[in-house]
């Protein structure tokens, strides 16, 4: 039980500080300003839950491929590496999240314009019927807004710091606790982004978030190192 609680606590803290002010956080906030919040929240949270489970599964399988001793050492190095990376980003960042918010908004705008060109001049019933028949398979079962929110967040997390850290954490801690903590943190962050919208996102200090995340990763790294020394 203590192993599950430790994995849950570490994953909750790590994911929360990694996702607040992240690119996917800003994307969720902007999408919620343009589309129904319910669909945006469902799409974003579903994507992040799937990614968390996949990452934790990879981390859980890692000790079966290489020894647990080596996975522990790799995890320790990951924590220190991400900690230094986050601290460096924090010292370089400006005070607020306006720049990244504007960057994400510009990317979404360009994507919407590209999609908008393909949806004009479809007024006749015959054309609408033909379009329904040619729709992608998934859109026949899910809302296009849900799929858009899902894809933006899912692919936005690939190779992200939080994904790699989740893999390392699941290799060293109880995977169930890691998944549970990650899901709760993702739900909290995404809900805040969807409800708070652009006004909340613009108030977030990327410097404070990066420095806080860096310090947390360093603390996890020290704890992991001390555990290996005592073993």
UniProtKB/TrEMBL annotation:
Q: Which GO terms describe its biological process?
A: Golgi calcium ion homeostasis; Golgi calcium ion transport
Membrane topology is: Multi-pass membrane protein
A single GO cellular-component term on record: membrane
Q: Which GO terms describe its molecular function?
A: calcium ion transmembrane transporter activity; manganese ion transmembrane transporter activity
Identify the keywords attached in UniProt to this record, alphabetized: Membrane, Transmembrane, Transmembrane helix
- A Pfam family cross-referenced in the UniProt record is GDT1
User: Where in the cell does this protein reside?
Assistant: Membrane
Query: Per the UniProt record, which residue ranges are transmembrane?
Result: 39-58, 70-88, 137-156, 176-196, 208-226
Main subcellular location: membrane
Its family remark reads: Belongs to the GDT1 family.
Descriptive protein name: GDT1 family protein
């Amino acid at each position: 039980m203590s192993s599950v609680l430790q994995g849950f606590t570490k994953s909750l803290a790590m994911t929360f500080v990694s996702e607040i002010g992240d690119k996917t956080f800003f994307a969720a906030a902007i999408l919620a300003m343009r589309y129904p919040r319910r669909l945006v929240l469902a799409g974003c949270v579903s994507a992040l839950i799937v990614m968390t489970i996949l990452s934790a599964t990879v981390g859980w399988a890692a000790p079966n491929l290489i020894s647990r001793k080596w996975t522990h050492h790799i995890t320790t190095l990951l924590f220190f590496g991400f900690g230094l990376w986050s601290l460096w980003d924090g010292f370089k960042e400006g005070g607020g999240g306006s720049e990244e918010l504007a960057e994400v908004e510009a990317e979404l705008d360009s994507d919407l314009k590209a999609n908008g060109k393909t949806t004009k001049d479809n007024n006749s019933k015959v054309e609408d019927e033909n379009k329904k028949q040619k729709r992608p398979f998934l859109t026949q079962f899910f809302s296009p807004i849900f799929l858009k929110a899902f894809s933006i967040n899912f692919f936005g997390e690939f190779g992200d710091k939080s994904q790699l850290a989740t893999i390392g954490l699941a290799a060293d801690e109880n995977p169930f606790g890691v998944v549970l903590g990650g899901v709760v943190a993702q739900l909290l962050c995404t809900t805040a982004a969807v409800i708070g919208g652009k006004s909340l996102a613009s108030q977030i200090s990327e410097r404070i978030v990066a420095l806080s995340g860096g310090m947390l990763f360093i603390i996890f790294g020290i704890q992991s190192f001390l555990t290996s020394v005592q073993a």
